[in-house]
Each structure stands twice: as structure tokens, then as C-alpha cells.
Amino acid sequence: MQKTHEAKATTASGKMSRKQFEKELAKLQVELVRLQNWVQATRARVIVIFEGRDTAGKGGVISRITARTSPRVYRHVALPAPSDREKTQVYIQRYMAQFPAAGEIILFDRSWYNRAGVERVMGFCTDEEYERFLAVAPVVEREIAVNMGIILRKYFLDVSQDEQRRRFEARIKDPVKHWKLSPMDTESVRRWWDYTAAYQRMIEATHTPDVPWYIVPADNKRLARLNLIRHLLDSIPYEHIHVDLPKIPKAKPRPKGASESLGAGQPIPSRY
Q1: pTM for the complete prediction?
Q2: Is residue 220 within 8 Å of 227, Cβ to Cβ?
Q3: I need a surface site. Which of 39, 61, 219, 222 has the fewest CB within 10 A?
Q4: Is 76 helix (H, G, I), strand (E, B) or coil?
């Protein structure tokens, strides 16, 4: 469903205030719920792939999508490293186990494209496995999107070299972001140009008319999040589904002698 876009509320420097960002995000989150209702009503199946450089903001945009939506419909999938058993499976097999049933939207925080990115650069796959993946991925995705009828969207979030370094430095200084750091991630700073070449080849080989790659400039996190969500909504022909909201009934009268106290249990201390 196409909507009229709001005028850009940014300063001359391209910055957007937090207040304006939250205002625009709230509008998009209403539409994300409407998309959710349509997916449930029509039993549609949707896959959204979020790829990109380390620190590009994949998790941040996913968290904004899921903040006001149902986790039963919008499922965030971020798979760990494959187990020894999974390493012996067909490469895409463990991802296919996460594919949507009717009425679900799967948000892949990284995906089968790990093979063309980190596995390629870090030497976790052979040249033969890498080339086979690039040849097979477009065929599998065409089958998914065309013959299986799944709505498939692929986004690549891109940041500049200087911005990536700045974000890694900010993570090191912020204790609540230390869980985002690993030697594998920070190695991407040293191997910047290796990753650049890998991503260029990946996108060139797997950008198809049926399932194109959409590139998201992400040096400005707020604009990247809004633009990506807006594009996702515009790319799916959903309709506004009427929802019959329940009415709040009148409470039954209080029984004689009934207490509002829960009785047993220990209240937590009031520290705030």
C-alpha cells in the first residue's frame, strides 16, 4: 500500500533530532502493525534479510520493527555458529528450518549470505563451496519468491570505513554494548577491503530481477532505519484490514468480604 511520504525533517547537515525521529518512527510502527494484520488475514509469508557490514545497524532496525509488533508474527532470527551436525547438512538447510509458516514474517539478522561474507573472508569455506553458493543462491531464492509465493526482501546496510571504526570505539567505551564485541567483528576493521571485495562480488552475483538487493546507506542511523522501514512497507501491497476490537465488560461486583490483597508473597523493595 503506497503512502504519501512526509517531507524530510532534517537540518542542513542531514541530522534528524531524536524527537522528530521518534515521531516519524511512531507513524511507521502503526503501518507495521497494519502489515501484521494483513499478513495474518491473508496467511501471507514474508522473509526479510538484513545483511551488511559490522556495526551497520542491522539489529537496531530490527528492534524498531519488532518494538510494537507481535513476536508471534514478526520473528527475529539470529542463528549462532553452526553445530558440528549442521556443518554436515546442505548449507541452507538450517536457515530453511526457520522459514515462515502462513501468517508469519521472518527477520533474518544475517542469513545464508554468511557464506559470501564472513566465511569467504575468514576462510571458513572452500573456494568450491563459495562458488557453488553464488551459483545456487539466486536459483533457490527464485524458487522461494516465485514458485513458493513467499515475499522475500534483501537489504544490505552499508557504512563508511571511518564510521565503522567510530562505532567500534563507542562500543568499547559503553559497558552495555560490550556483548556486541568479538575478535571476529573487530577483525572486519583490518580486513575492510577484503570485505568490500567480497560484498561487491556477492551483490553482483545474487542481485536478480526476482529478488534484488536493496542498499541502505547507514552512516546516519536514524535516517537509515526510517528509510528501510518505509521501503519495506512500500514494497509489499498490503491493505488495511478492519480489526474487531473487544469491548471491555463491566466488572462483577465485589464479593462480600473479599480482599484486594494477594495474601501470600513478598513485595519487592521500593527503590525508586
Answers
A1: 0.90
A2: no
A3: 219
A4: strand
From CA 54, how far away is CA 187, in angstroms rounded?
A: 10
> Which of 247, 225, 233, 231 is CA-nearest to residue 34?
233
On the 0-12 / 13-18 / 19+ scale of CB atoms within 10 A, 55 is buried
In angstroms, the CA 37 to CA 245 distance is: 13
- Per-residue exposure over 60-71, b if at least 16 CB sit within 10 Å of its own CB, e if not: bbbebbbeeeee
Residue 35 main-chain phi, psi, to 5 deg: -60, -40
Q: What is the pLDDT of residues 138-183, one digit of tens each?
A: 999 999 988 999 999 999 999 999 999 999 999 999 999 998 888 8
CA–CA separation, 38 and 119 (whole Å): 37
Q: Which residues pair with 217 in a beta bridge?
A: 158
Task: Tell me how many domains the chain contains.
Answer: 1
Q: Are 64 and 265 in contact (CB under 8 A)?
A: no
Residue 22 is assigned to a structural domain of this protein? no
- Domain span at residue 66 reads 49-235
φ, ψ of residue 123 to 5 degrees: the values are 75, 30
Residue 253 lies in a domain: no
Q: State the residue for C-alpha cell 542498499.
A: 215
Q: Which amino acid is at 272?
A: Y
| Domain-embedded: residue 28 | no
